[in-house]
Amino acid sequence: MKTIYKQNLIAAVLVCALAIATTIARAADSLPSWNDGAAKKSVVEFVAKVTKEGGPDFVPPAQRIAVFDNDGTLWAEQPMYFQFAFALDRVKALAPQHPEWKDKEPFASLLKGDVKGALAGGERSILEIVMATHTGMTTAEFEKVVKDWISATKHPKTGRLYTEMIYQPMVELCAYLRANGFKTFIVSGGGIEFMRSWTEKVYGIPPEQVVGSTGKLKLELRDGRPVLMKLPEINFIDDNVGKPVGIQMHIGRRPTLAFGNSDGDLQMLQWTAAGSGPRFMGLVHHTDAEREWAYDRTSSIGKLDKAWDEAQTKGWTVVDMKKDWKRIFPYEQ
Amino acid sequence: MKTIYKQNLIAAVLVCALAIATTIARAADSLPSWNDGAAKKSVVEFVAKVTKEGGPDFVPPAQRIAVFDNDGTLWAEQPMYFQFAFALDRVKALAPQHPEWKDKEPFASLLKGDVKGALAGGERSILEIVMATHTGMTTAEFEKVVKDWISATKHPKTGRLYTEMIYQPMVELCAYLRANGFKTFIVSGGGIEFMRSWTEKVYGIPPEQVVGSTGKLKLELRDGRPVLMKLPEINFIDDNVGKPVGIQMHIGRRPTLAFGNSDGDLQMLQWTAAGSGPRFMGLVHHTDAEREWAYDRTSSIGKLDKAWDEAQTKGWTVVDMKKDWKRIFPYEQ
Lengths: 333, 333
Hints:
2 copies of one chain form a homodimer.
Chain A: H1 2-30, H2 38-50, E1 65-68, H3 82-94, H4 107-111, H5 115-118, H6 123-134, H7 139-150, H8 168-179, E2 183-191, H9 192-196, H10 199-203, E3 210-222, E4 225-236, H11 242-250, E5 257-260, H12 266-273, E6 280-287, E7 294-295, H13 306-314, E8 317-320, H14 321-324
Helix pairs in contact in A: 3-6, 11-12
């Protein structure tokens, strides 16, 4: 009897080992742009355990909520947030209709090509630029403006469309999570309407799964037809302490997995980590000055300082772009 | 050749007729609580045409967004909104912690059982009751309070749990739409956190697909752990002109199908109707005083006046509960 028991045990272990190996092998196919290493391993092992029916860490599909920051996590954010590049282009395009901008900051500096000068006014200047370029039109009109811009405008350094500057490994990760029953959401400080125009096509994330910063909207009638006007008033800032609020308002459950890249994502990661049961917290660390950009603790864009420290203390996964990613952008060979 | 052409045509017509008959027969199985009539026919024909690949009215699955009002559309709303019954019960439960309520309206009247007197102050009184019972705690604490209440409290007239007083035909309709590739959302004036505690279990609609009125939330640390506090401040009212705004903020696309029951749903229906391509607009008309309640133009709850007129003018579907529904509540034989 003892021998039979032993044999059964060995057989069981072999079956389990095979199952795990198969899962990892299958995952490997789904994540071809990831190098084998600790980061990839942590993701694959997490997905394997939360999807293992009957296992101690099983998470029912309905609760498999994965949230991703956008700027610096799903696509690049240098030398300036892409949405800000959009806003600057819009200031130029709209200038003929605003002769007063010639003598009015921050527009006057912008129109002379002096971005630094324009931003001397700090947050107030940024807000004025955003309001002038993102409001005073209907949601449908804004969507068209964004679609036209994003389908034609090239990044100053790479000469590529902005939507080509997405991180291939993260696109694969989103698809891999969805294939494992996760629902993928964007939770970004960026404007919700700006992102929704292209996230479905580019990431496979539909508009209803995009959470972002919002302005106030107002229902109006235009020639007897209802339209939604974008008012020059901020409704919600989905950054820092706002991210858990945005998640609760929009999704209504705590994520099982969260990925960010900067201190603006810290509260989202902490909120995710504070849930019971298995949780995955990940950070993208920009370490590749050659293929992308290298920045962290002292960067004015995408500063990664406190969140990095907490990742070390808490054992969160930190993705080293240079080491962990075989390919960064989809257009690389 | 002419004869062959004719034969082919006849064959094609027969195949089409069979396909349509099959679709309708299959749908009939999915909607057993609906009587055969114009309302059921309009829904089934709409779903058949928007799901017919290659047809002129085909709607891709990603765009098949269906929105439903909740109170009076998915569950009953008499003799008072169920969430208001919850609030009144909470006033009683919390009274020992608030000795000052004995002399303070609207609480004083409420605690004496005088609801009418309590509501003499109009909207201001309602707001005070909602704030006192829905805020000042974390989202997790509130969820528990709602779950405890809704799993135990009986409706004063039927003696049934509130979650048993859902409309069986509408539950079938939601499931039927999902089986045909629709994503079903609630878009209600009710509180988002109140509904999310039970909508998934009862309607199969997950928290992230519930849009409702919201209060402000604030991230705080409690014993070093992040919590979301419900602040006594209104964030958004998802009713009337608010519904298209809520839809845009939360879903980000125009619905293909919308169902309501009162004037509070008119703008949502108009917003849906204003889209290009096929759209379905439906109203539930409360006509059955015996099995449910009968009310419309002059009711203080669920007033159906302007929306009814517009439904007649525009040819929207009006469901006559008495005639169109074989069964109203799931517990009926």
